[in-house]
Amino acid sequence: MIGGTVLTNSNNETPIPNEDAPPKPNDQKDMSIVEKIQQLGQTNVPASNDSKIHCLTIIGQIEGHVALPPQNKTTKYEHLIPQLVAIEQNPKIEGLLIVLNTVGGDVEAGLAISEMIATLTKPTVSIVLGGGHSIGVPIAVSTDFSFIAETATMTIHPIRLTGLVIGVPQTFEYLDKMQERVTRFVTKHSNITEERFKELMFTKGNLTRDIGSNVVGGDAVKYGLIDDVGGIGQALSKLQELIDERKEKSNKEENEF
What we know:
The protein is 41% helix and 19% strand. The chain is of the alpha/beta class. Helix 2 (77-89) runs parallel beside helix 3. The radius of gyration is 25 Å and the shape is globular. The model is unreliable at 1-8 (pLDDT under 50).
């Protein structure tokens, strides 16, 4: 095929298509639509160029220093950290909405993400949909305000190790210190007391094959772990409220000078 024409041989036999010919514009468009359906489950993603709120999703398992199997849905912390830095530096972004549906994962990676979110200067709101388990708890409470869906759950349990473990007292001392880091962060960034959090963490009989508690929706608010029960509408309204408060405070400081 040359310039959109089909080549034939000298005996006028069946036309021979040229495989090197570039795809037609319509073919490229069809391929693009197919790729979007495969990746996103829909033909187009609604985009709002005027939105000043950035949505960050944390789903599946939080991947740390060890790569997880390819069939696992993961959130890689090395992908999130540059995004958080970019959000902080981008003047067009005024607020951050974090959507959580995670089973937990690497403790140090989860704490690193939590610390970065907690130290952002821009207003942040988190919403737990489905589940915010294990190390997802510190991430959920790291924002300025947190929501949980009525049917969402949060699993609170002690830290666990996988792989080779050296059976010496120092190993358990290290585990205890790491557990204390998680406890200290959660109690600092939420309204739950250390005694209540540890009580939920070491409860027996709540989980079938583990020590800990499964906290559902309103119970998380009752314990002081999450600020309020709500969905995406309430989360966006609260975030806009925090953005407006920040603007008013900034304008007031400028007027004083």
